[in-house]
Amino acid sequence: MSWDWQRSAIGKSQINAHKNGELRVGDIALLINGLPYEAEHFGDTGEPLIRIRSLLNTEETTRYSGPNLTDYRVTPKSLLIGMDGDFNVGRWGQNEPGLLNQRVLALEGPESTLRWIEYCPPNTLSIINDLTYATTVKHLSSKQVSRVRVPWPGKHRVDSIVDRLDRETAEIDTLVAELSTAEELAREHHGAALERLIVTDGPMPSELRRHHPIRKSGTSVNGAPWPAEPGEPGVLKTGAASRREYRPHENKAVIDPIEQARLSTPVEADRVLVNRANTPSNVGAAAYVEHGSDDLFLSDKLWSIDFQGVNEYFAFAMQTRLYQDQASQRAVGTSLSMQNLPYDEFLSIRLPVPSVERQRSICATLRDEQRLINASVSDLDRAIALAKERRAALITAAVTGQIDVTAKRRPAAEQLEDDIKELS
């Protein structure tokens, strides 16, 4: 389908420009609302259907095989806005044209104009989000989007600025990707050392029940959606162990005195914290608890286990692929999003367990390795944060006229690389 840009977009911008150099989004882009496609026609066949979830890449593409409601199709050039919740902005990431579902808005226009709208600060959709009242889910209308004002220095200058920003931000994005890859490689190096020391060079695996574990668990209590302050009672969430490291801040404050009275098992030091209920990839996740707390308590979905041996070693061993595969295979449950690991099945998991002396030696080696990795990852995290900060600052300065990105100047990525070197 072809659009008459002169009539629907560009032509209007020349006569509707405000004196302060601003235009409304509806002046420079054509807004198209999604349609209410019937769910009974959803499935694995037909045309792709772009839904709000599609902007978050959280699900497989839904397809629609029902009646055709419009000739309009979304393409990768379309700018998309989710009209509920957080008002996410994105693009359709597939080459195959797709249908636009209700509660998703498409903006069509010249590519440089759509890119300009994406770049323009402040994030006006976030402002609308903050000002929109709703008891459950916030809703945005296409009329609100059309009235959003953006800076407009003229089409020719917009094209120049967008072209420069596309090149500059692409270079920064490449740098961020390289830093992220280095961070992942550092973690993989630690994982390889762990697999070698525990699995490859370890003895024959034996069932965990042979190492006389003593298990404690907690109770299910109602907590607040925020973490407990120091000195206040809190109950650990499953996230306290799901990343294979103990994260005490992953807790819920317990405010109600009746609920506080139901808290039963405080977090003890030198224990293995095991997540017995979680997603298939995280069920059975374990972490070593070095320091306990009288104010943090276990929930019914967490076990605190004391093995006969070096608990830290068992926590390291539960980070291996050997353990994770067995835990996933033994998990049960009808829900695809939540699985449970029965304790008797947990005890049947087999892991290499050497002598206590060797356990201590392995732990010392892995601790030293982890310290080096943590230092490296910390530096990389700071560099990534700086890169993202500079990227945002560059965009803001360019579209608000604070800097002239069309002038000859040193590329932002080169300056950023120098600044990152100064961090270390």
Tell me what the structure shows.
This protein is α+β, with helices and mostly antiparallel strands. 41% of the residues lie in helices and 17% in strands. It has a 4-stranded antiparallel beta sheet with strand order 2-9-6-7. A 4-stranded mixed beta sheet has the order 3-5-4-8. The radius of gyration is 27 Å and the shape is globular.
Uncertain ranges: 1-19, 133-137
**CATH-derived topology of the largest domain:** Adenine-n6-DNA-methyltransferase TaqI, Chain A, domain 2
Tell me the CATH architecture of the largest domain: Alpha-Beta Complex
What portion of residues belong to β-strands? 15-25%
The domain count comes to 3
Largest sheet: 4 strands, antiparallel
Oligomeric state of the chains? single chain
Broad structural category: alpha+beta
CATH superfamily of the largest domain: DNA methylase specificity domains
| Integer-rounded radius of gyration | 27 Å
- Mean model confidence by pLDDT: 86
CATH class of the largest domain: Alpha Beta
Instruction: Assign a percent range to the helix content.
Output: 40-55%
Envelope shape: globular
Q: In angstroms, what separates the terminal alpha carbons?
A: 53 Å
Keywords: DNA-binding, Restriction system
Biased composition (Low complexity): 223-234
Protein name: Restriction endonuclease subunit S
Region (Disordered): 214-234
Summary tags:
424 residues; alpha+beta; Adenine-n6-DNA-methyltransferase TaqI, Chain A, domain 2; 3 domains; 4-stranded antiparallel sheet; 4-stranded mixed sheet; globular; disordered N terminus
